[in-house]
C-alpha cells in the first residue's frame, strides 16, 4: 500500500496536480463518489472496484495538495471512531450521540 500511495503521489507531481487548487480536486472526489453510487445501483462489481480505487486516488491527491498524507488522515479518523458507541438503524451505523 505504501508503494502504491507513493506512485500516486509521484504521478500527481508529474502532472502538477499537487500544486493545483484543492477545491477543484474535491470536485474530482465528488465525481468519483458518484461513480461508486452508480456502480452500486447497477450491481456492477468491476465498476465498483474501479470507482473505489478512483476515490482513493483523488483523496490521496487532495491530502497531498494540503500538505497531508492519506495515513495521517486515516489515523485521525480512526482515532475519532475507535471508541464510538452506537447501533445499527435500517442498515446504517448511527453514533450514540445522534440517537
What does this protein look like?
The structure is a single chain. Helix 1 crosses helix 3 and helix 2 (22-42) runs antiparallel to helix 3. It contains four helices and two strands. It has a two-stranded antiparallel ribbon with strand order 1-2. With 99 residues, the chain is mainly alpha-helical. The chain has one domain: Helix Hairpins. The chain is 68% helix and 8% strand.
Give a brief description.
InterPro entries: MazG-like_dom (IPR004518). This protein has about 100 residues and is mainly α.
Instruction: Compute the separation of the termini in Å.
Output: 36 Å
| Structural category | mainly alpha
Q: Helix share of residues? A: 55-70%
Low-pLDDT ranges: none
Oligomer: single chain
Strand order of the largest sheet: 1-2
CATH topology: Helix Hairpins
Corresponding CATH superfamily = MazG-like
Large-scale geometry:
globular
The topology string of helices and strands comes to HHHHEE
CATH level 1 class label:
Mainly Alpha
Whole-number total of structural domains: 1
Radius of gyration over all CA atoms, rounded:
16 Å
Number of strands: 2
> What integer is the average pLDDT?
96
Strand content: 5-15%
- Helix count equals 4
Pfam families: MazG
Domain NTP pyrophosphohydrolase MazG-like: 28-85
Protein name: ArpR
Amino acid at each position: 500500500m505504501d508503494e502504491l500511495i507513493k506512485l500516486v503521489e509521484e504521478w500527481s507531481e508529474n502532472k502538477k496536480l499537487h500544486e493545483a487548487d484543492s477545491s477543484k480536486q474535491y470536485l474530482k472526489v465528488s465525481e468519483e463518489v458518484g461513480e461508486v453510487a452508480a456502480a452500486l445501483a447497477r450491481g456492477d462489481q468491476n465498476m465498483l472496484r474501479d470507482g473505489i480505487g478512483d476515490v482513493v486516488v483523488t483523496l490521496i491527491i487532495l491530502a497531498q495538495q494540503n500538505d497531508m498524507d492519506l495515513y495521517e488522515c486515516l489515523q485521525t479518523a480512526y482515532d475519532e471512531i475507535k471508541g464510538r458507541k452506537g447501533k445499527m438503524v435500517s442498515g446504517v451505523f448511527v453514533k450514540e450521540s445522534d440517537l
